[in-house]
Amino acid sequence: MHRARVVLQASSKIGNSERFASWLIKNPQAVAMTINANRLKSSTAAEPFLNGSSSAYVETMYNNWLTDPNSVHASWDAFFRNATNGAQPGVAYTPPPNLAPYAKNEVPLTSLIPASGGMPSIASGSPINEKIIDDHLAVQAIIRSYQSRGHLVANLDPLGITTGDPVSSGDWHGGLRAFANEAVIRQHVRFDEADMDRVFKLPSTTFIGEKEKALPLREILNRLEQAYCNNIGIEFMFINSLEQCNWIRQRMEPPNVTKMSNDQKRLILARLSRSAGFENFLAKKWSSEKRFGLEGCEILIPAMKQVIDTSTKLGVESIIMGMPHRGRLNVLANVCRKPLHQLFTQFAGLEAEDDGSGDVKYHLGTYIERLNRVTNKNIRLAVCANPSHLEAVDPVVQGKTRAEQFYRGDNEGKKVMSILLHGDAAFAGQGVVFETMHLSDLPAYTTHGTIHIVANNQIGFTTDPRHSRSSAYCTDVARVVNAPIFHVNSDNPEAVMHVCNVAAEWRATFHKDVVIDIVSYRRNGHNEVDEPMFTQPLMYQKIRKTKPVLEIYADRLIKEGVVTAEEVKDVKDKYEKICEDAYNQAKQETHIKYKDWLDSPWSGFFEGKDPLKMSPTGVVEETLVHIGKRFSSPPPNAAEFEIHKGLLRILKARMEMVEKRTVDWALAEAMAFGSLLKEGIHVRLSGEDVERGTFSHRHHVLHHQKVDKATYCALAHLYPDQAPYTVCNSSLSEYGVLGFEVGYSVTNPNALVLWEAQFGDFNNVAQCIIDQFISSGQAKWVRQSGIVLLQPHGMEGMGPEHSSARLERFLQMSADDPDYMPPESPDYEVRQLHDCNWIVANCSTPASLFHILRRQIALPFRKPLILMTPKSLLRHPECKSSFDEMAEGTTFKRVLPEEGPASENPDKVRKVAFCSGRVYYDLLKERRDRGLEKDIAIVRLEQISPFPYDQLKSEISKYPNAQLVWSQEEHKNMGSWSYVEPRFRTLLRNQKQISYNGRATAASPATGSKAAHNKELKNLLDEFCVL
Ligand SMILES: Cc1ncc(C[n+]2csc(CCOP(=O)(O)OP(=O)(O)O)c2C)c(N)n1
Ligand SMILES: [Mg+2]
């Protein structure tokens, strides 16, 4: 027992810092001093396995060992043996032998200890040498350091401006190849030259050894340099999955991973030659035209083709791309293989053969189906049309991709994928990139992995990265979704292709986003007529001295004997001839066709349809009853499915309405959706909290009160053969999510896609999507969308930010001419709808909602619908409709005429108030309260734009002796007034006037004071009653 205590006491002097890997401490002398000092201070508490509570156990073991050394574990045998032999504190402990088989890539440490040379052996019972442990740990730390930080010193910049150049950054250890910046990679770890030939075991987290389990230090460093600090810089160590990290290491670390066969090299050269040849040709023919050429990043084309080749090999059949201006024409020509003559006609300034106002050539989209010659598989490629607004197309592409996946039943994204291209400045600067990234893993929004490619020319217009971003890389945004980021030097085409292969495989394996950052430069100005030397003189001096990548690569392949100079010239000449022929063909064209640039053709949708014939929107009563009942019932297995008591009350109230043949807003919406679903129309409702509804009125998804994720959606279970219903709470993003839904809506015309703003106010965060895609999309790109924007709107005393959906803005962007009244015709409504850019409505009844939603699909074309929706009206007792207004034979009423006493004696009516939306109910009450029902007629515009001239005309003529007013609750410079006023003037032909009844002008959409709100309303109603 006493001996045991002595052993323990001796061991207890082991200090914590003794186990410190000394390489972590900068100054070795300081290390020695720390160790000595700690030895004196140390206690058993410092050595957890020898603390008080375990000492009794150790004592017992020690006594057993004394009797029979084999009775204890081998590690204790070694420990007691060393301790009793008088081993110094800290060296008595020997790690236990590894009982588990070594992993594929591991070798036992013991096998690496030199048998002689003064190093102590690690054989059982002998103390291990601390330096050996430290050195091995140091090597492991170095490996990890390369994996984490190697990218910081990789040679990524073809201009050598922004990243370190390891070769010129100084020698390391007497004539060895220059290694990466020590401070970054190895921090304070030092090895002597003598250590360089020592063999070190490789941890299982590296694949530099391939089949080797141990390598000399020199070779380890060499291989790490090659993998992490050469022309590829990888950021991946932040990924929270060991499997994924290992997957990347496996593809990036083994020596020679970027080596290509001669055939592959020739293919890269040929593609590069076309990419450069295309830009040269345009420069030659149209030297002063803006085309946002790719010069300096020509490798983008072979890179995209490589991503496509590898992805198609892995099963992808359809790729949807979004990209900005840079190199877009080249992508259309050489990636999509859009006929060159069609591209060249865009330069000719010809008139369009079809309708639309068109767009500049570097914004147009395209859609192509073709054979991929490398994989011999058919592939569909679409480049979405996009506005100038950088990155705005990102969510649109994602929505379109998601829709294609959905309609094909491609639930895992194996057949359809997206590629997004970015400029460096825009990728870092535009918030919608982040918003789009955040959709990438959400159940109803994921596209199962996007390949992002950044054409990083290290400049944005005239601003260099030092002034355009605070992050180290332009790609840092991708870290939030754990996407691996591959930075690659564009002057090394084979490295670029390798990275493209790995990215495509990553996407096919993990179905998560990945980024390829092609670090390149911009040989010309921002566009071809820009002078870059004004602002980037030094950069451009460097660029002038930099050889084009085609030349660099061709020289390299000639030197390697892969191609001859003649072959290089031949490829170049042949492509020039192709361009020349297309140029001559383009000269024959007399018109351009916008339809050639459509990114989402709806094959079969328009064919054989009368463009002015609308299907009925009324529905047989049996359908209304069926949907109503299902929507008012708990799940069929209600006994097990416990729903909230409050919801039971709501369902009961719904059922009572069905029994009374009436509907409120929520029920009418459900009936519109349900009847469309019955007809095979997919309905998708997306937005913040839409499942329940901001105002707790919708409740499309019922939640089991006891079981997580157990939900029930009645609308998804109406009929066995119905279309699918998607209702999905979105991320808290307007720009991203609305963009997504726009992309979704352009994919399949037989779907009703709706986006709901939490409050209408929030739509201005998505203004770019509204302006650039929804209101102008068809005019610019002949692309139709039937998207519906539901926008809670109304002055209800809730303050400036929850009142107005900015109705005036939508109306102001309506393209119908205020001075032109279309001639009357039987198909007036549908003609107007055909010609408008969108529909703006502020309905006042559930039946109007029902019909206007159904009309979206009943139309023989698609138009966006901007719908103001109610808040308090959701529960207003008078805001109800009867089944009679929705049944077969009924239609949407653009104008709801007066039907009360005033309409019975119209000659006596002294005032007609025209209005729209919820103010109707205030007017109605006021008129009733003041007994003016015979004197004032109220006419509602359920659809404001296109302006229902025809129906308003007959309403006006009905009341010859009445003065006309427009009543609105919004301020005078807001709401509908500025839209309706000139149109009424056109309608009235100056024979009569219409005056304004409503709030005064204001800067803020609504007052923050409830008292002021009430006063304003009172004024409005007082004025309404003045006769
Ligand atoms: C949202 C938005 N803001 C500003 C612009 C004006 N603009 C056009 S290109 C450009 C620079 C883009 O730089 P980068 O993203 O690096 O692409 P590059 O032109 O270098 O390829 C700017 C600021 C724009 N098109 N979109
Ligand atoms: Mg740039």
Task: Give an overview of the whole structure.
With 1027 residues, this protein is of the alpha/beta class. Helices cover 39% and strands 13% of the residues. The protein has 34 helices and 28 strands. The chain has an 8-stranded mixed β-sheet, sandwiched between helices. A 7-stranded mixed β-sheet has the order 17-14-18-19-21-20-26, sandwiched between helices. The chain has a 5-stranded mixed β-sheet with strand order 23-25-24-27-28, with helices on both faces. Helix 5 packs parallel to helix 7 (217-228) and helix 10 (300-313) packs parallel to helix 17 (493-510). Residues 1-54, 96-107, 115-126 and 164-179 have low confidence and may be disordered. It binds thiamine diphosphate and magnesium ion. Thiamine diphosphate (TPP) binds next to helix 14. Residues 326, 388-390, 423-426, 455, 457, 459-461, 526 line the site of thiamine diphosphate (TPP).
Estimated helix fraction: 25-40%
Total helical segments: 34
The portion of residues forming beta strands comes to 5-15%
Shape: globular
Q: Structural class of the helix and strand makeup?
A: alpha/beta
Question: Largest beta sheet, briefly?
Answer: 8 strands, mixed
Distance between the amino and carboxyl termini: 112 Å
List ligands, each type once.
thiamine diphosphate, magnesium ion
Round the mean pLDDT to the nearest integer and report it: 88
Number of distinct beta strands:
28
Question: Going across the major beta sheet, what is the strand order?
Answer: 3-10-11-9-8-4-7-6
Q: Which parts are unreliable, with pLDDT below 50 for 5 consecutive residues or more?
A: 1-54, 96-107, 115-126, 164-179
Radius of gyration, in angstroms, nearest whole number: 37 Å
